[in-house]
Amino acid sequence: MLKTLAALALIGAACGFLLFALNDITRGDIEKNRTKKAREIMTELLKQPLPDEILWVDDISGDCQLGYFIKHAENGYSGSINFFALYQPIPSTQATLNKGAAKSEQLSLRVTRHQETPGIGDFIDHNRDSYLPDLDQQSIAQWQNLDNITGATITHRAIKKAALNIQTRVRYHNEKYPCVE
Amino acid sequence: MSNNDFSRGAIENNPAWAQLLGLCPLLAVSNSIANALGLALASGFVLLGANTSISLLRKIIPDVARLPCFVLIIATFTTVAVMVLEAYAFDLFTRIALFIQIIVTNCMILGRAEAFASRQPVARAIIDALGTATGFAIALLVLGAVREVLGNGTLFAEMDLLVGAIGADWQLTIFTSAPLPLALYPPGAFLLAGLLFAGVKAITAKQEGAQNNTANEASLNSNNAN
To answer: What is the mean pLDDT of each run of 10 residues along chain B (226 residues)?
Structure first.
């Protein structure tokens, strides 16, 4: 028994050390790649160049005028789905004037990482499918009214839940850091 | 012995067409040569690392806990492959990330660890890993080439994802429009894989038949001579 435990501990330690050392070597490049990808997505969503330095507070960045970028994770069918969102509040005056399509905010979503079933749940990947880009700048209510995709109900629920939770997070963020007009 | 170990893994006991192992990544990722080669290299690396480590540690690994040990070692090498790809081939990684991560559950790798590497010296375990990885790579690349030609009309498209800027000029345009777009989708993958496996089986059966006929004739001749 002791011999078995010692062997397991030895193998576990060797594997752990290898991963620890490799993580040290690759961490910088991985972070650089992820940041580059995130900036590409943010530029695509915002449709204008980004400032060089972006300040993140609680995984939220931006302001009342420009809108907020939010890093968000929601549980999908097979682990978490990582989202990148652009949430843009619309001033109440503008929303009132444009009553036909009155909405107080618009949300665009992109998925940066997921493990949904290939071919069924990966419609959320904007590199494979235009599903999410086609829904850009919808209000939270419109996000909630989307039809479910057959065979990917859990993935779809995760998107709807993400839209609601992102709204809650931005509201909480606004209470904590009120807008400066 | 070594040649036998290699050819057995690569051809006779090929994980794809003889044992039907690792079919999920095989069918999902073989929609282009670039993707297929990426998965083949990652799977080969994990197989080689796992077989070598398990063979080296075979006298330390307790028999009662051998499966957790194998899975731990395979998971470690899979994580290494994930980290390296995410750091140095990020665009390719974003496309095949899921299938790299599930290498850890690939029966082909656990099967070679249990059936071969845990009972054989390091040199034979390495040759077995190379043979099996080559066999898996052949299946992936053949299916990848056929699906890319039929589904996209091209060969070697987007190789720059794998080999850098030098691969951008490698693309060959075979057809100006895709002759069979279905080939890129899961049903197309199943159909083409089925046809490929049936073709290999037919060739093997024909060769075995020819060998049997030759053996029968030889035995008949020796009987007549007697």
So the answer is: 77 84 85 89 94 93 89 94 91 78 86 91 94 93 94 88 82 90 89 92 84 77 70
Where along chain A do its domains lie? 1-50, 60-176
Q: Where are the domains of chain B?
A: 2-225
Q: How many CB pairs under 8 A join A and B?
A: 61
Paired residues of A84 in beta bridges: A71, A110
Q: Which residues of A touch B101 (CB under 8 A)?
A: 115
Provide the residue type at B197 as one letter.
F
Residue B28 backbone zone (phi > 0: left; psi -120 to 50: alpha; other: beta): alpha
Query: Cα distance from A117 to chain B (closest Cα, Å)?
Result: 9
Over residues B80-119, the pLDDT tens digits come to: 999 999 999 888 888 777 778 888 888 889 999 999 999 9
Burial class (CB in 10 A: 0-12, 13-18, 19+), A158: buried
Give the A-side interface with B, CB within 8 Å. 3-4, 7-8, 10-12, 15, 18-19, 22-23, 26, 29-30, 33, 37, 113, 115, 118-119, 127
pLDDT at A100 over 50: no
**Nearest alpha carbon to residue B88 among A152, A155, A136, A30:** A30
The end-to-end CA distance of chain B, in Å, is 36
Q: What pLDDT score was predicted for residue A99? A: 47
Q: Report the alpha-carbon distance of residue B11 to residue A170 in Å, rounded.
A: 58
Question: Which residues are bridge partners to B154 per DSSP?
Answer: B173
Taking only the tens place, the pLDDT of each residue in A119-143 is: 677 788 887 788 899 989 889 888 8
Helix (H) or strand (E) holding A72: strand A67-76
Distance in angstroms (rounded) separating the CA atoms of residues B98 and B101: 5
Grouping H, G, I as helix, E, B as strand and the rest as coil, residue A181 is coil
Contacts (Cβ under 8 Å, ≥6 apart) of B32: B144, B147, B148, B152, B157, B158
Inter-axis angle of helices B122-152 and B186-225, nearest 10: 120
- Considering only the beta carbons, identify the residue of B68, B73, B186 that sits closest to A119: B186
Global pTM reads 0.77
Segment holding A113, helix H or strand E: strand A105-113
